[in-house]
Amino acid sequence: MSSSAFEVRGGNRLKGEIIPQGAKNEALQIISAVLLTAEKVTIKNIPDIVDVNLLIELLGDMGVTVNRVSRDTCTFQADKVDLQYLQSPEFRKKSGRLRGSVMIAGPLLTRFGQAYVPKPGGDKIGRRRLDTHIIGFEKLGAKFVYDNDDNFFHLQTDGLQGTYMLLDEPSVTGTANILMAAVMAKGQTTIYNAACEPYLQQLSRMLNHMGAKISGVGSNLLTIEGVSSLKGCEHAMLPDMIEIGSFIGLAAMTQSEITIKNVGLQHLGIIPEKFRQLGIQLEFRGDDIFIPTQEKYEIQTFLDGSILTISDHPWPGFTPDLLSIVLVTATQAVGSVMIHQKMFESRLFFVDKLIDMGAQIVLCDPHRAVVIGLGRQHKLRGITMSSPDIRAGVSLLIAALSAEGKSTIQNIDQIDRGYQYIDQRLMALGADIKRV
Fold it and tell me: Which positions are catalytic residues (predicted)?
């Protein structure tokens, strides 16, 4: 975290192979789940990024024995969890800095009968409410008090009881947290309108390996038969689909020939299709995606000839984390597209930087932007800019790599929170990036 900006000289065509890191969103859930058992759990393909490392460090502070066997493999044993530590100022400070720390609440509550949840902070993409988590725990029989002095929810229970619940939104972290709490609740729990992202499917598979009884995996109706205890297991994380989408956009924008290795194709859902709608050619070669050099790519229209709209939607719809990538990639396409961000406020607030770079974008309101692709008639030009959140940061990095001249991207610890060694990995493909 020592450096604070990337200096990027754009215009290079990149070439080569890149391997996506393990999925960040999956990692935060899977690593929290180690608290559900006193036995040893081994996790592979862990992304070496700030948010994940902070969570691993937090577990260590809580008394979990952590052994980092290699950069991407860790063993955990939660047989001596220090519940006193959860009430300490250090825990408050550390967990308050880390949005993913909310995920330890479900496991702690079901195994130890108590948990502390910080009010969320994190990046600037609008309000991230915890209602789904807290209301789900309440339905399972937990009581909570909110402490205004320390901004923490204190949760406790003398034993969770299975129940039926219909979530008011299919929150990924909310579903995961409630699912982890429910696996050791008494009786049957049904979660309807559950999130069904690959992250959740992976978590469910891992919990079932540990002895949980979860059915309906991959659907929005999960049924959990409570068990009295769970055992250890081994789990390997999927590749990060957000990175994979980012690399597809990068290849198209910079007219590069790139092979993305080991992508976990069957878990990518509609993502490749959305990039094809922008006119980008992709070839599936085994479990790799090959993107050839394309002089130009043309945005498709709907069948009746009207302008394409790409919007986000809970899985298996298009993930909101890739909308900013699609938006930036569309600036160099031929044709127009409406980007509609339904699920978060202010995720589009980085487009002013792209407009400064010369992109033709109409920001209609906080949720919608129309991109008029210039088909590279006018290259983007390098500017100095700051990254408001993790995903926008990478979108701006992609824009800078395709632009003429030098760009400086500040506040890059936002990028480091989500992407491991992104500068080194892109330099290996021929990108001109320097940390300053």
Answer: 123
